[in-house]
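Mods, move this if it's the wrong board.
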Amino acid sequence: MVTNIQDVNLKVLVMDTDFYALHSVNSFLAWDRRTRVTFLSETPQEMWEYLKTTPLAELPDVVLLEADHLGGAGMLREAITRIKRHIEDVRVLCMAQIPDPDLVEAAAESGASGFLLKQDVRLQVAWAIVFSLDHDFVVTPTVAQIAADRFHHRIFHASALPAMRKFPELTGRIAQALKLCVLDGMPAHLAADEMGISLHTIRGYIKEGYRILEAYDDTEYPVDMTPQERAFMRLTAFEEDDDTEDEATIQAREGEE
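Not the wrong board. Structure tokens:
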């Protein structure tokens, strides 16, 4: 995993027919300077038109492609193949609401870089994109389980996304304050009202929360990055465990047995 976020600068296209999912993913990626969303598309037609008219230098490095509503495994396979034919070295990451092993297999066969279940990846979509840079085919834990009986070699050797990093020192109240002010973006005075505490107290919680988060992280951040940006990245980071990436492979073998 890259520890210096300034080493990564990825242009991302997001195609999702769900308006709310589309803009949620956009907001999560906006917190992470390693990803820059260059286009949001609510339909495949919008996506194809954008790709056809965009200069080579501005074409995306990563396409987040909704897999559920393209018309089945055959249409997903065709879409991924077409994207990869149009953009050299592009990484296509499929995202889905419903775990469908046929779609996972189609993604693997057509050269996608991963298949992510939305309820698994949640706020960690930027981390999932970066994780995929170092792996052939990445999946979320639920996808690893439902596709364990598929014998495609890329699924068999898939790398499961690690768990979210844990911060044992965070108390319940400090964690709640960080969630409201960092993950939900709520102003401190509104978060204080929500928690039934004073503005002074919640600011103390946030300050202590930032200190705890920093103690667990050795990532190099740009000097102009705000404490809130750094906190968001730390709260959504993956657990650093060298063994985690083999989880999907282990699950696949267990499924065979």
